[in-house]
Amino acid sequence: MDEVLELRSRGRFSRTSRQALGYKEVLDHLDMGISLEETINNIKRRSRNYAKRQLTWFRGIPGLRWFILSEDELAGTVNGTAVAVRDFLEESLSSQRPR
Length: 99
Prior knowledge:
Elements: H1 2-9, H2 23-32, H3 36-59, H4 71-74, H5 80-96
Helix pairs in contact: 2-3
């Protein structure tokens, strides 16, 4: 909320940025009197829909490899994913080299 108020006071919103996820809903809350509860629900709904569109787009990429991260890996305390990514890239590169 504070970020949107600050940017709005500086006149920093272009037509495109006004539509950004979260900004649009907060601006609607401020400008049109939409309740905070409804604003939060709208942000959650648009976020879910955006994530679904991203997944659909990623699924269309041939050869895409997903790496599932554990909580520890997300926190940076385990480097198992880095090893898996390195191994995957090495395997991919070696299969592309001329023989």
